[in-house]
Design brief:
Number of strands: 12
Shape: globular
Largest sheet: 8 strands, mixed
Structural class: alpha/beta
CATH class of the largest domain: Alpha Beta
Radius of gyration: 22 Å
CATH architecture of the largest domain: 3-Layer(aba) Sandwich
Amino acid sequence: MSLAKYKMFITAVELGSLTKAAQALGCTQSAVSHSIDSLEKELGFALLKRSRGGIHLTGEGEQLMPALRNLLNSAEQLEQTASSIRGLDSGTVRIGAFTSVAVHWLPPILKEFQQDYPRVDFKLLNGDYHDVEQWLSDGSVDIGFINMPCHLECETIALMEDRLLAILPLNSRFSSYPRFPLVECETEPFISLLESSDHDARRALEAAGVKPNVRFYTKDDYAILAMVEQGLGMSIMPELLLKGRQYHLHMMPLIPEAKRTIGLAVAAGDKAGPATRRFVDYIIRYVTRLSK
């Protein structure tokens, strides 16, 4: 069986479309469809269900996915190791990151790394904490930025503590306060991330014994910022996410103070190839410089 077929199949599943997979792989849709049909014939069972809404895994396809991911991960590690031995330092590093890291940390780290190792390619998946943990768990990424503590079977590295801040409309009655009392979240209209994503605010509120007056839920950090700017309510956000842009809202430290710990999870054991390990070194060096 061909690794190319496995790659086409996994790409189609990840993107949910044969057309999008063909675009990502630089081939025709018919080539992707033919490859998957051939793979299904070799295996003796269907892997995908096709509908107008896209493609979905069959039960057999779901059972096969972990083994296929592991096979491609091993092939990528082999390629990275062979390239390192030849002195080419090539391969693909797959990264999972949440918004604040993807926006504020990764661009300068990638730029510095690419200047030194231009043959290394990157695949960046951007989501929330839950997404990143899922990608690490199923082998979709080699390294992922996480909110610690993390209970995945990975090597984990604590990188930096990041303050949580209250964000409020400019005309808020709390604007003159030096700090925002968390207990006030029980009466103020609160805009929250979905429960699967909102580890930071939820931990801070639970630690303070506060039940927020949630009026809106969303999965998007920047949607929350826009809603606060429009006076629809308040929220709690990590300081890193708020850096580098001018927002029409008020930001305040919390009482009691709350923080998150940004960490890095790396595929356990020898699953991470040389290029991935080298990129981890660049991440640690960058964050260390920020802390000085």
